[in-house]
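Sat 14:20. Reprocessing the chain from the morning session after the first attempt stalled halfway. Input below, unchanged.
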Amino acid sequence: MISDSRKYLVGLVGPDVLEAAEKDLFHPVRLDLDCCDAIEIRYDFFDESEWPTLSERVRNIIANKIQIGTIRLKRDGGKFPDARAVERLELWKQILSARQVPEWLDLERDCLSDFKALNDMAYPIGVSLLISEHNFERIPSDMELETFASDIKRVDAQGLKIAAMSNSESDCDRLYKFAKKYGKKFQMFAAFGMGETGKVSRLWSLNEGANLTYGSIGHSEAPGQIEVSTMRRVLDQGENLHSQMEILAFLNQF
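Finished this time. Tokens:
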């Protein structure tokens, strides 16, 4: 599989962002949405009765952005109850039966047993699957990262995302090594650190082989997350920022 050569900045959409953008054509969140290349619809932040219409509502605001649909479990940093994980396939079915649907769905690695059933629903209508892993304690070892990639290649998923807590300045080097080796083997690939020492990796990982990164719209939803407007400024300065230190210096201006 050949990776997408573009670099994608993803902004998260929850109820506050969506409702503000719908009510006010000139609300600041609309500028944030314009900064993004893709939009993550966090279904777990919304009431379930709204789920089938969310993709269409987002497209009515910003039509030309790729959508990633996510029902994040609590154990992975979301709000959907872990005990209801088995119910998500039926909920995905409702989402995928709507008039408008996301181009991508995000499924956690620890729910990989659901991949075939979800892919059987998604693939016929042109929806791809991104497999994600979130580690809020540490960066996985090289061997653990290799196993992760092997698991995702085994099921033939089109996207991979890993976000893991960085605990030192050099912690993210393993993620960069991982991105260099596997980034081009997936259509969408994200590998970055969380936390203060992982902040710069959300941008520098795009120089190391990743093509997907995530920023915040409004308040941050993950440790070390950066506002999409600031990330867009950095990405627009890409040719002038040649190291992690230069990116950090640029970020400190904001």
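The mean pLDDT is 93.
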